[in-house]
Amino acid sequence: MLEQLGRQAKEASVVLAQVSMNDKNELLREAADQLVTNQNYILSENVKDVKAAMERGMSEALVDRLTLTVDRIEGMAEGLRQVAALEDPIGAVTEMKPNKSGLLIGKKVVPLGVVGIIYESRPNVTADAFALCFKTGNACLLRGGSDAIHSNLAIAKVLQESLDKKKMPVFSIQLLEDTSRETATKMMQMTEYIDVLIPRGGAGLIRSVVKNSTVPVIETGTGNCHTYIDQYADPKMAVDIVVNAKTQRLGTCNTCESLVIHKDVVQTHLPAIVEALLQKGVQVRGDERVMAVSDRVMKAAEEDWGTEYLDAVISIKVVDSFDEAVEHINRYNTKHSEAIVTDSYSHAQEFLEKIDAAAVYVNASTRFTDGFEFGFGAEIGISTQKIHARGPMGLDALTTTKFIIYGNGQIRH
After folding, report:
1. CA 134, CA 140: separation in Å to the nearest integer?
2. Which of 83, 126, 163, 236 is least enclosed, having the fewest CB within 10 Å?
């Protein structure tokens, strides 16, 4: 069965590579409209997943990641419309120049082919992945988590019906109904059919894909994201950014999990930050200097500095210098998103220069690390590696190049 899906995806990718920009954009707009038109069906299927998750005792933050609403479906649809509005990279020719033999050599942007995506508990990924893959002429083979199986199947069904209506290959998107680990492992070995594999989920899933896949992997990372409150930070800005970065949505990879603060502003800035977090229901874990600020702060253990909670928990570390803050963040971060709050231009520039992460912010919440927010319409994931793609991955990350060479009879001597 899995091999059949692979063959169908490969066949669809051959057709998709030749689809015109206008036809792709028209299909994406139609699919967006159909998601909204069929929202009651999608929501009814999502309720099944949410109910099962709550019965299993899934955390509130993870249930939120799983839950669809009318607004979130409209957000998915808007993502498709934005992708339709983006410039199509496929077919662009760059670096066309002659060599010493008179050959005219250039590079042409082409699709990857078949993109496999293994992901967890986020139904919006189904629509986002399809939009970006389709726009770049790639077929996508998706394996979502069992937690969201009803939601994912409903979204995929609507998208396939849109493809059929526009006489496009319905196998441009396929979703594995079998969510077992055994099937996922087999998918990781499908080098004959899948050109690249992208994992989206927790640390365990990503480790498993990186370890077991023989298909090339674009590694998306977990998010132990930090916010550093510098000695020159504005106190109100510090509170606003930390609270937003931590509580705006708990179960995402760009949520702030760790706060680092300079010792000089512990007394002036930290009490208000801690109180605001506690009022939002966040459990605060800190070192001894943080614990002295409030008797409601719990003692942090060593493992807290490197933990992606995906829950209403944050760790806070006091540092004696800017350099110590940079060292701490680079030691414990996951190369995802890091932020500094400061009025010092030199510290801002130094932070941007020295922090090793895919996205580095000055005076802004880490929650903005997102393809939609970056103007990509949607994202295929957030890469924390340094090869091929890094940060939120939009259309360009789903393309490759091939050399095209024009001659007039040259032979090599």
Report:
1. 8
2. 236
